[in-house]
Design goal:
Radius of gyration: 50 Å
Helix content: under 10%
Shape: elongated
Order of helices and strands: HEEEEEEEEE
Number of strands: 9
Strand content: 15-25%
Mean pLDDT: 71
Strand order of the largest sheet: 1-3-2
């Protein structure tokens, strides 16, 4: 038998009491909020680092002879003392003029062969630029220790004629940290007149900074290098 309309309405109202204007059915109670978790323990502090020991050494002194006011390192400077090489002697052992009648060795130090050159070290009989004869050449030194009075040994770069030149320094280290010990070169004759330290007051580093007819050389009183008249230049 089919349920009546009134029975269906009763069933629907029982399920959805709000729709029918009745008191809502009680719902399930809310659960209690969960307990707050305990705060995590803080990380352990790191141990303090050990303090460095204070330095006791004094700072290095400033460079005494750095490139100077011109700001350029000199083209030639002596980083270390050198020993002059011993070159093989020239193939010529007899002066070419020795057998020419009338051109035999005159008095005054000329030579006809190497056997005539016994007055110095490494003697050799070589053609002379002073006449149609030959003259003896000698090496005055091979190392600084061969020179007296604080001079240094200037190597010729060829066979014979190493010479001692005056020097107020022998190597760069003599001029202080970062310093330079350089040759004083005559601007006209190209002769090396000596060696000296550059200073921070220099107005030239070498002859390239000077006009023709001038040389870059240290002032005798201030020791600072500057351009001045060269020896041997025509006036």
């Amino acid at each position: 038998m089919r349920p009546s309309v009134g029975l269906w309405l009763s069933i629907v109202c029982f399920v959805t009491a709000v729709a029918c204007g009745g008191t809502p059915l009680p719902t399930g109670g809310s659960g209690s909020s969960g307990a707050t978790g305990a705060a995590g323990s803080g990380g352990a502090s790191g141990s303090a680092g050990a303090m460095g020991v204070a330095g006791t050494g004094s700072g290095a002194g400033g460079a005494t002879g750095a490139a100077g006011a011109v700001g350029r390192v000199p083209a030639v400077h002596r980083a270390a003392a050198t020993v002059c090489p011993v070159f093989a002697p020239p193939t010529m052992t007899t002066c070419p003029f020795a057998t020419v009648p009338g051109l035999e060795m005159p008095t005054g130090g000329w030579c006809n062969s190497v056997s005539d050159c016994t007055s110095g070290k490494d003697g050799r009989c070589q053609s002379s630029i002073n006449g149609p004869w030959c003259s003896c050449t000698y090496d005055a030194c091979f190392a600084d220790a061969d020179c007296a009075g604080g001079a240094l040994c200037l190597c010729s770069g060829v066979y014979s004629s190493n010479t001692c030149v005056s020097a107020s320094c022998h190597v760069d280290a003599d001029c202080g940290a970062g310093g330079y010990c350089s040759p004083v070169v005559d601007g006209c004759s190209s002769q090396v007149l000596g060696y000296a330290c550059h200073t921070a007051r220099d107005t030239c580093s070498d002859n390239k900074d000077c006009p023709f007819g001038a040389s870059c050389a240290p002032d005798p009183s201030t020791k600072a290098w500057g351009c001045g008249p060269a020896n041997g230049c025509p006036v």
